[in-house]
Design brief:
Elements: H1 2-25, E1 45-46, E2 49-52, H2 55-65, E3 74-77, E4 81-82, E5 93-95, E6 98-101, E7 106-115, E8 118-120, E9 130-133, E10 137-150, E11 158-161, E12 166-178, E13 181-184, E14 187-190, E15 193-204, E16 207-210, E17 213-216, E18 219-226, E19 229-230, E20 233-236, E21 239-242, E22 246-252, E23 262-265, E24 269-270, E25 275-276
Parallel strand pairs: 2-3, 3-7, 4-7, 7-10, 8-10, 9-11, 10-12, 11-14, 12-15, 13-16, 14-17, 15-18, 15-19, 16-20, 17-21, 18-22, 21-23, 22-24, 22-25
Antiparallel strand pairs: 1-2, 5-6
């Protein structure tokens, strides 16, 4: 009987230890909003993937990339994140007359949503959640309640998607405004590939302004854009200036205005299955 009691106590103790260990491994809970100041000192790594649970960790990722650290790593969003309208510094920096500090890794949005993205650098180029992406891949991400004011090469998700960069399964809603050229709802300038993505944004700029992309030399497939688009030169419901590349299976959804799919077309391949709904 005594032996049985000792065995039972040890069993309960072991179960308690295992429970505590499991709780300790659970990611901490964070407030829904973000004050824009606190940055987590580190991000947990699971099977080679940096997992992002909160605004602080997303900001930490931006800080790393912009300091040339872990720019080729893989990141995965694990929860919906509310940036709370705090001023955001883009992930990946472009520097004039220099190659800059681009994001070159993989960002898996994991079907999650980032809300409350706010950027207010009205004289600064290459702005978005990501600024400059070269060879990097971004997928499965939703941006809602975007509010962006920038200079040139402005997009909700990426300012400049350079050659080799890829976006798939992305969506953005809100407002994007640029004071100069190459202003797009999703991407300011696209030299890469965009697929299965769309926007529901009010977009405004001066030159090369599009509901999806401002300036395009890359490839677009299975995409759509809806919302208002305003500008002075080369204004299109989908693409402001289609300089080169290709576009297929793409839709511009009417917003009450009669503007063309493309503000200007100088080259590339435009498929006949680009249409209006």
């Amino acid at each position: 009987m005594i032996a049985a009691r000792h065995f039972y106590r040890r069993l309960v103790l072991l179960a308690s230890i295992l429970l505590l260990a499991e709780v300790a491994q659970e990611p901490p809970s964070f407030a829904a909003g973000w004050d824009g100041v606190t940055i987590s000192p580190d991000i947990s790594k699971n099977h080679g993937v940096y997992e992002l649970y909160c605004p602080e960790e997303l900001a930490c990722m931006a800080q790393w990339i912009n300091a040339r650290k872990n720019a080729k790593a893989t990141y995965r969003l694990m929860r919906d994140i509310d940036l709370g309208g705090a001023k955001w510094k883009p992930i990946g920096l472009w520097v004039e007359n220099y190659e800059g500090w681009p994001f070159r890794g993989t960002f898996d949005g994991n079907g999650k949503t980032i809300s409350g993205l706010r950027i207010d650098y009205r004289d600064e180029p290459v702005q978005g959640l990501f600024g400059y992406v070269a060879g990097g891949r971004i997928s499965n991400i939703r941006l809602v309640d975007v509010d962006i004011d920038g200079g040139s090469c402005i997009g909700a998700l990426v300012g400049w998607l350079a050659e080799g960069g890829r976006i798939s399964g992305a969506f953005a809603s809100g407002r994007v405004k640029g004071g100069e050229r190459d202003i797009g709802g999703l991407v300011g300038r696209n030299d890469g590939r965009i697929a299965n993505s769309g926007t529901a944004l009010d977009v405004e700029g001066q030159q090369n302004v599009g509901g999806l992309i401002g300036l395009n030399t890359g490839h677009i497939d299975h995409a759509y854009a809806r919302g208002t688009v305003k500008g002075e030169w080369n204004v299109g419901g989908l693409v402001g200036y289609f300089q080169a590349g290709s576009v297929t299976n793409t839709t511009r959804r009417r917003n009450g205005g009669e503007i063309p799919h493309f503000g200007a077309v100088d080259g590339g391949i435009v498929s006949h299955d680009v249409h209006v709904e």
